Automatic annotation (TrEMBL):
This is Phenylacetaldoxime dehydratase. It comes from Staphylotrichum longicolle. GO terms for molecular function: lyase activity; metal ion binding. The keyword Metal-binding applies. It comes from the Eukaryota. Keywords: Heme, Iron, Lyase, Metal-binding. Its cofactor is heme b. Pfam families: Dehydratase_hem.
Length: 361
């Protein structure tokens, strides 16, 4: 008997049908969702990044930017430090090196208190693009828990928002079929979560980076962080992952990054988790795709129909078969569908293809 991915306190009579194939559907393999305490009704994920021109990594400026952010994220003057944060990096398709903190709080109040009391907000507002050797970006999401879902293929290793959970669920029923992501989002019981379909021209990046740009939020923007962790795989599985799955995931993420506009993807970064001290990815063996879609339906369509995710998906079942279904690769994702006021995007001295800047004109 499986649990529901939607916790009891967020269940309501459906006005929209579930995609679940049948009420007694049993998924072919187990997966789990994070359970948050009932009094947690909202989460925060802040992506606070620094961007460096080609050729600057791993220079002193990278270390200095990370030290600056670390001081705020660990500040002794703030009683509401993030529940969890980690570092990730990516070199983007313009050759810029981006390093970001991904920090989580259990409420907007806690995040705002941190921003104020750590001195982060004051520092951020005073940043002058012309005085800084690098660009900076701040992308903050404030999903209510009814607009949020997670799926993990193991209940033993927390990632991201799971660090704020009180437990993992029992194996959930709503997975293993297309559309299950939507079935796991509590609000989708009664809301189709339609977004703003962006006309193609909407994706044209501004010709030059402006100094400081705030990009407004969009109705029902769909954000996915989809992670892969091969740290604890056996030597044979590691080789298989790196030779057969990893390149296919990169291909899918490159497609969304470079050609996403055709499928409703505003931004995609395929990031490596890096060591907090060295900012190096070696030995960490964890990556994630971070993508922003104009609406959930576009993300669903890319997964279900586009050759790049179908190659990942199909490749995974071959991979599992080769391992006799004894897979130790860990995968997870967290997905949120956000109201405009649940998003904050600000860019200081970044190139025009950065994050939601690319969709801002
Ligand atoms: C090694 C990497 C990946 C593997 C093995 C993988 C495999 C899968 C599998 C097996 C499912 C079905 C899960 C279930 O319902 O039980 C799935 C669904 C999904 N995947 Fe991937 N995937 C990978 C990477 C990604 C990435 C990087 C993204 C996007 C950034 C992504 C987006 C999605 C979404 C949104 C769904 C849910 C679709 C729905 O329920 O309608 N995946 N993937």
């Amino acid at each position: 008997m499986s649990a529901s991915a939607i916790p009891n306190h967020l269940k309501c009579p459906r006005t929209l049908p579930a995609q679940l194939p049948s009420t007694d559907f049993q998924p072919p393999y187990p997966s789990f969702s994070v359970r948050f305490p009932e009094n947690v009704s909202e989460l925060v994920l802040a992506i606070i990044g620094a961007q460096f021109k080609p050729g600057s990594e791993p220079g002193a400026a990278v270390g200095a930017a990370r030290s600056t952010l670390t001081a705020f994220l660990t500040s002794s003057t703030s009683p509401t430090l993030p529940s969890f944060f980690e570092w990730a990096s990516v070199t983007d398709n313009k050759g810029f090196y981006n390093v970001t903190a991904l920090a989580y709080w259990p409420s907007r109040i806690a995040y705002e208190a941190w921003a104020e009391q750590s001195g982060f907000r004051k520092w951020w507002q005073a940043l002058l693009p012309e005085d800084s050797p690098n660009g900076w970006f701040l992308e903050v999401f404030f999903p209510t828990t009814d607009r949020f879902e997670t799926l993990f293929n193991t209940d033993a290793t927390p990632e991201g928002s799971a660090h704020m959970g009180e437990a993992m669920s029992e194996a959930v029923q709503e997975h293993g079929y297309w559309g299950s992501m939507r079935d796991r989002i509590p609000l989708a019981q009664t809301d189709g979560l339609a977004g703003e379909k962006a006309p193609p021209g909407d994706f044209t990046a501004p010709a030059a980076a402006a100094g400081r740009v705030v990009v407004p939020g969009r109705k029902n923007l769909a954000v996915i962080r989809s992670g892969q962790d091969w740290l604890d795989t056996t030597p044979a599985e590691r080789v298989l992952y790196l030779e057969t799955m990893h390149p296919v995931v990169i291909k899918g993420m490159d497609f969304l990054r470079d050609h996403g506009k055709g499928v409703g993807c505003h931004s995609c970064r395929f990031m490596e988790i890096v060591d907090p001290k060295t900012a190096k990815a070696e030995g960490i063996d964890r990556t994630f795709g971070l993508a922003y879609f104009d609406e959930l339906a576009s993300l669903e369509k890319w997964c279900k129909e586009h050759p790049t995710h179908l190659a990942i998906f199909g490749g995974f079942f071959q991979y599992a078969k080769k391992l006799g279904n004894n897979v130790t690769l860990r995968v997870f994702h967290e997905v949120m569908v956000l109201e405009p006021e649940q998003q904050y995007f600000e860019y200081v001295g970044c190139h025009p293809g950065t994050g939601m800047l690319a969709a801002s004109q």
